[in-house]
Amino acid sequence: MAKATSINIKSAKIKISESHNERRGKTDRIIPGREGQHEHWKQETISDRLKEIEKLYREKVGQNLQKSAGPIREGVVVIKEDTQMHHLQALGKKFKECFGIDCIQIHIHKDEGHIVTKKEVQASSALKNKTLTEGELILNLHAHMVFDWQNKVTGRSIKLNKGDMREMQTITAQVLGMERGQENSKAVRLEVNEFKAFRERLNEDVAEELDKAEEIKARSLKELRLIEEQKKNSLSELKRLESKKKETEETSEKFKENYNQTLKRLIDSREELRKLESKSALLSKLEILPWKSCKDNNVQAWLSLTHGFHSIRIESGQDGSIYFQLGDQIARLKDMPKEVQVVIREKLSVDRVFQKQEGIKWRKHHINRNRQR
Fold first, then answer.
1. How many CB atoms lie within 10 A of CB 16?
2. Structural domains in the chain?
3. How many helices (H) and strands (E) does the chain have?
4. pLDDT value at position 255?
5. H/E/C letters for each residue in 315-337?
6. Report for 3-12, 201-210, 242-251: range of highest mean pLDDT
């Protein structure tokens, strides 16, 4: 299967781009035995082209170029072992024809990569990735293409949409004779400085993941033991609550029974009170003034203590009538309402003191005998 290619474009790092691309600085990513396998083509320096861009921008737009404009951009292209400079130059010309961007530098790097170590294989296996082999050479074959991204008519940066960028990927594959990367793929190409720390990060990540796994395992076992203990306590508490519930239900039944009995007594008491209030209402119809002295255990005391009628004298007349007198005021029971008479007569019928004092029975007998004569 042919190797897949892609181009990843970002704003160029003006101060360090040329130094890195032209191998003027020390690089620790060089594969032993591949030193010097890099090639360079430069039409113009970045600083010289940037001056021209800034001048044209002032002429066309009437102001200084903003730092965020990004008029110099750099594309990192994935290449294969036999990719040559003329292939990339042809790609630069095609980009200018299609999109108006001008390639001013090309740098081919075939000297970068690393050799897979035993630790990397172990780390890869721990991550369930068994594609690495100890001693395997992994090359990072790529090229840097530096572009002037200015529209020479307007002076502003060239605008490319997503469709243009997809077409750029297709053109790259066609010109270089390689497979096009998967369209709409979300994969991100590792930058050179990221590729540098690949092995270290991989080992550190695996060690960190293993430590986390052990920590999680220990914490989970501790939580499991705690849950088991809570389960036992919960069962014990549940039994206690069920027992308490049973006791509460029995107590509730007793309270309910007592409540019903108390309610019945209350209803009976209210009924008795209603009867007494009825009698009291009848007695209140006696419009007689109070008295000061009375004797216990008789109707006078009953009227005084129960109904507030004081200093009333009770007598029986020759005709059998009963009189209530205070001073010159006299009230005859016979002339009172019938319901009042019933209440008073009920009380007088059991009042032995009154009967003895007034001789009611004797007088009634004497009157009846005279009538018979």
1. 10
2. 4-190 (3.30.930.30), 299-372 (no CATH)
3. 11, 12
4. 83
5. EECCCCCEEEEECCEEEEHHHCC
6. 3-12
